[in-house]
Amino acid sequence: MRQGIKPFLMRAMKKKKNGFISATKIAQRSYCEKQIVLDQQYGRNETDVQRQRRERGEEEHLRHHLEAQRYGAKRDSRCFIATELFGPLAKETDQLRQFRDTFLMSRLWGRIFTRAYYEVSPSIVRLMKKYPMVRSLIKPFINWVVRMVSRNG
Description:
Layout: H1 5-13, H2 23-28, H3 33-42, H4 48-72, H5 80-86, H6 91-102, H7 108-130, H8 132-152
Helix pairs in contact: 6-8, 7-8
């Protein structure tokens, strides 16, 4: 039973010529083994609606891929203290990044502040990791900043 699965998975994992693997191919890797064998033996019938949705998904994936290539490298994702406190994908971290990008970076004093922050904040994060008391002192202040930014932004 396992012999037929490996070639199918290897084909699904191959990188496409245009530089990305479709979401459909990624999803195919998560099928159960029985489904993969049945698909190989009997083929995979796709309704018109399924085909349209797959094509639309592939188009969206390509659009996001191209957008990420175009704009992703320009976006600065550093936000050391917020990332340590809330996590890299937290809404608080994202709010602070957006405030930096839209408000601080458009002003000379904001760019100077941001550069200084990038110099100092890695040391603060190390202290927060080593001494939980530092973390407990900084977190209320950062929470206050997030509230101010979200209220005014």
